[in-house]
Amino acid sequence: MADNQSIHKHKHKIMKKISLLFSALLFFEGLCDAQTSIRIIDLDEYPAQSVEFKDLGISFQRISQEQKSDTLWIDKNINSIFHVEYVIKALGSEMEMESDEYYGTISILQGQTILLKTDSIAMVGPIDYSAHYDKIVVPLVLYQSQDNLDTAIDLYLIDLQSRVSRKINEEPVFNSEYGCITKDGKFVIYGSFGKLYKYDIETGISQCVIDFDNPTLFIFKLTYENNALTIYSYNNYIEDALFPIQKRMIPNIVI
Question: Minimum mean pLDDT among 9-23, 39-53, 118-132, 218-232: which range?
Answer without folding.
Answer: 9-23
